[in-house]
Amino acid sequence: MVDIIAMAIPFFVLFILVEVASLWFAPDENERGYDPADTATSLAMGLGNVVVGIGYKAAALVALAAAYEVTPLRVDPHFWPAWVALVLCDDFAYYWFHRAHHEVRLLWASHVVHHSSQYFNFSTALRQTWTPFTSIPFFVPLALAGFPPWMLVLQQSVNLLYQFFLHTERIGRLPRAVEAVLNTPSHHRVHHGMNGRYIDRNYGGMFIVWDRLFRTFEPEGERVVYGLTHQLRSHNPVVVATHEYVALWRELGRTARWRDRLQLLFRRPGWHPA
Predict the structure, then answer these.
(1) How many CA atoms lie within 13 A of 140 on its CB side?
(2) Please, which residues bridge with residue 182 across strands?
(3) pTM listed for this prediction
(4) 50: burial class by Cβ within 10 Å (0-12, 13-18, 19+)?
(5) How many helices and strands in the chain, by DSSP H and E?
(6) Taking a C-beta distance cutoff of 8 angstroms, is the pair 98, 12 a contact?
(7) What's the CA angle centered on 190, arms 136 and 273, to 5 degrees?
(8) Rounded Cα gap, residues 135 and 33, in angstroms
(9) CB 178, CB 184: distance < 8 Å
(10) From CA 61, how far away is CA 165, in angstroms rounded?
(11) Interatomic CA distance for residues 2 and 57, integer angstroms
(12) Angstrom distance (rounded) from CA 94 to CA 159
């Protein structure tokens, strides 16, 4: 199997340089652009994710292969509608993976990394978690449905590659038909906003139809303020990767009842015992 994301790294860097150049020659006062320290942190987080990803991808392959071996179902990769079904099923699984990582505190501790930047540009797309293993359970059902592991890994890479291009302020709204079906930079700007109306909205990967269906969609309106409700001030990659785990651990230590501790782990971020 070919690791598409690893092969795409030079192109990621190229598009970052192109975006920086476009901001230099055609600046827009409504766009935040780039900050050197913030960009360096995002690139460091991306490199760390690549290193951790070696172990993660091995674990994910083992889990997917095990699920595929125990199911009697088989999807024929030579049957082209199977690929259409895979694109839709993978994005549906991604929607619930993504939504759960916003609505469950323990999972949010992993995903919060991606939302910690107060800027929104192509480098922000590379600000990825160093603890990606929490995603595995959400995609195992696709292997149980008969999709070969190599098909799943390939489509997950395509999905992530698509999402890289959503992280930009340089592109406004696209034609209405596109905005109605696909995830776009406009929709994803909303997802990265800490404005009250934008929090926990627009979870889709390639498609926005799941958000419309499950009532988590919010169109872009007021200017987006990026980052977290309690902004992270550090550019230290280790702090960025671990700060929510540290905060959660401290809260667990201050919580007396086991029932409250479990709720701290599995309820929404921001929940606290009375």
Answers:
(1) 13
(2) 207
(3) 0.95
(4) middle
(5) 12, 0
(6) no
(7) 65
(8) 30
(9) yes
(10) 26
(11) 12
(12) 9
